[in-house]
Amino acid sequence: MKIPSILEMLQAGVHFGHQTTRRHPKMDEYIFTKRNGVHIIDLEKTKTMTEEFLVEVQKMAKDGKKILFVSTNPQAKEIVKEAAINCGMPYLVDRWVGGLITNFSEIKKLIARYNKLKEEQASGELEKYTKKEQIDIAKQLIKMDISLSGLAGLKELPDALFIPSLQREKTAVTEATKMKVPVIGISDTNANPDKADLFIPANDDAINSIKMMVSLVSDAIKIGVDQQEKTIGQNPSK
Length: 238
Hints:
The chain is an alpha/beta fold. Helices cover 47% and strands 13% of the residues. A hairpin with a 2-residue loop joins β2 (31-35) and β3. The mean pLDDT is 95.
């Protein structure tokens, strides 16, 4: 996989951090300088850490790990969704579903009900219900589509969470930490990188920066999944 050059990262705005007044002290070692009251991220470190990050992510995928993509940032919604679909991973790009990690047994039941209703909708089986029931189910499915469509294939607790903005997704990070589910993601200059098991120091606001980083992670996972499938193909007994 080709890692973007420092020039390409500059062009994508990966180096722009937050205002100096919002700096988290644990990000100090990843800050190069400041300009006009804004911290500038050290892209030499970003590039090195991106390479290390992608190696680990690829290995996780090769080992068959399920990585849940999480972003409640409206600007990043479609980018994160597309990236997750591209590598065959589950995603959540609306509001966080409370208890998704800490109470997965109940969320699993909700996902199963959603899948059942979707199957009935696709097969025309919903016609067995009364008109009023069909209307109620249709309304219910519209709401469930928003929060559960990306989780439809999630049958077990995810092996890790990929969070393109650690600072924004505090509830997801808290739940994952409580359940000892690894967190990997992007840490901007206002975030606490200690909240993640693995992170890349980068701009988590600019669309081009988000797209670059999320796409790299998606591609690394895809490579890992392909490697896993080839290994299984060579050893069908596994």
